[in-house]
Amino acid sequence: MATLNRQEIDFHHKxxxxxxxxxxxxxxxxxxxxxxxPSLTALRAFEAAARHExxxxxxxxxxxxxxxxxxxxxHLEAHLGKDLFRRTGRRVELTEAGRLYFPYLREAFERxxxxxxxVSRPAQxxxxxxxxxxxxxxxxxxxxxxxxKSCPDLHVRFNTSQMDWEFDPRNADIGMVCTVDSNRPxxxxxxxxxxxxxxxxxxxxLKNQPPLVHPRDVARFTLLELYTAAGDWDAWLGPGGRSxxxxxxxxxxxxxxxxxxxxxxxQGIALAPDFLAEPDLASGRLVSPIRHxxxxxxxxxxxxxQDRADELAIQRFRDWLIKEVEPLRxx
Length: 331
Description:
Elements: H1 6-34, H2 40-52, H3 55-62, H4 66-80, E1 85-88, E2 91-94, H5 96-120, E3 125-131, H6 133-140, H7 144-150, E4 154-159, E5 174-179, E6 187-193, E7 196-200, E8 223-226, H8 231-237, E9 250-253, H9 256-264, E10 269-273, H10 274-283, E11 293-295, E12 299-305, H11 312-324
Parallel strand pairs: 3-4, 3-5, 8-9, 8-10
Antiparallel strand pairs: 1-2, 5-12, 6-12, 7-10, 7-11
């Protein structure tokens, strides 16, 4: 007879265990369905002990004694007819049956917690949304009426006072942000769209001027810059970036809104995300002096605290916004 190698032995052990559990489930399925389920207290004790791999830590989390945790788990093991923990001195570790059982209970309790939060919310929902002032004025406000129609019981307050580009959960429930860092611990990011940077100016600024052929030709005019987005001009100009223009005249702002208004007034050339400049381009207040655009270095997201991302008010606003930004999504 051929000798089995270690991998084959492990495989046979796993298959025997799966078959054993299948047979157990099959033989007891009718009694399990007809009989009572384990108590919720026992299930909660097992889930906490399995997650911590400690009866002591489970007892601290549940505010009961360690012996009470042990007692509840013993009841559960008796109900199932399977050992769920292997006890070695003061340490405990999950048996194969325990490892099989734990993920189902973890998911079940997470769903109970989520459902409880959703149902316990008041009927009248309130939501504070952090949004940049330019996005609010140039893009969001003309669309708010559709939010009122789709979610008439959702009371939304827009907060445009945040100076930082990142989301601040102390001042808002959710935020529409432009960032290169969508991996901040503790936050849930929903990708919205990517925009392109375009140069814009008043048509009057170009009168009696030779056409702009190369991006660096903008140095002939005053540059309307954002000191809060210093990388925009570097990205748009390419090699050499903004510093390659030398001492080109400039006026610096803290928002695209001010830069765009200055451009409309003929004070120089501004650089802005295309969707923010589009209303003034469509009306003729602004024109693009050169057919050149580049991807904005950062991407647009909707962000909320991870532990609140499933709240009903946040979900409803997210669903509405995703529909509204659909025309901005590029293939």
